[in-house]
Amino acid sequence: MANELIAEVTAYLLHLEQERRMSSHTVSAYRRDLMQCHVFLSQQDISHWSSLKPKQVRQFIADLNREQLSGRSIQRHLSSLRSFFRYLMREGKVSSNPAQAVQAPKAEKRLPATLDVDQVSGLLDYIEQDTFIGCRDRAMMELFYSSGLRLAELAQLDCRDLDFADQLVYVTGKGNKQRVVPIGGQALKALQLWLACRDELGFFDQTALFISKRGGRLGVRSIQKRLHFWGKKQGISDHVHPHRLRHAFASHMLESSGDLRAVQELLGHADISTTQVYTHVDFQHLAKVYDAAHPRAKNK
Questions:
Q1: Domains in the chain and their CATH numbers?
Q2: Strands 178-182 and 162-163
Q3: In 3D, which of 129, 54, 125, 50 has the Cα closest to residue 93?
Q4: What is the pLDDT of residues 33-75, one digit of tens each?
């Protein structure tokens, strides 16, 4: 019984990995969610995925809620289950999707933690570029803020992904989707200095853009540590991590331009609702724009 349930999950995960080219991180998240549901099915003596009914899915969601999982985590579990059943339907293994009509508890809307323009400028200008580490870290952080990259996107950049002539960076995002993002002037200068510093040490054969002193590609954990180090040195109270610079990029771009669609493209969001969260980051700014622009905003 258990083997049959697991076999279909395994086939689905292989489909995500090989056919849909999803990252190992995403596939691992699906595996965790579906294996938790598998445990629930075993407890209910359900031997086939086709035997799962909406009322049992609701019970599974209620169990997760009792375990005090956040609304966001429960939504992710339900999304994983829906996707899995869509796959099973395409394969002819089941005739319906029992998770489709089940609602998860509403997730608490948390605004992204961000930094204001002065904080970002202070953080970046603080880093001296007269050492290998300083030169590299300044280039990394300038690029994060200049182009709004995700941590994984920056970590996997190669030198060839930079186009200095057109001031662009070629990025491979979620689901291996490619996008092209502009690089700002300050980031370009920092990157040119960094590449010159690399060349002085003879790292000509290393394709990775950001490397350690030994010449190996810098991993995501190392990048996180470096940002945290500089945030602490600068005395920023909240933890500085890559997503805070991405959030700063998004909110500052929106404040200045108001162009939600353009920011969506730059961030690589598939759904504009993901980008819309940044419209709430600086409500006071939006209120000022409204007061200045709307013909009936002011009392007469």
A1: 2-90 (1.10.150.130), 117-288 (1.10.443.10)
A2: unpaired
A3: 50
A4: 999 998 898 888 888 899 999 999 999 988 888 888 887 788 8
Distance linking the first and last C-alpha atoms of the chain: 74
Residue 268: band (very low, low, confident or very high) from pLDDT cuts 50, 70, 90: confident
Please report how many Cα atoms fall inside a 13 Å half-sphere around the Cα of residue 210, on the Cβ side. Answer: 27
**What are the catalytic residues?**
150, 174, 243, 246, 269, 278
Instruction: Tally Cβ neighbours within 10 Å of residue 118.
Output: 8
From residue 182, give the alpha-carbon distance in Å to each of 101, 191, 222. Answer: 42, 13, 25
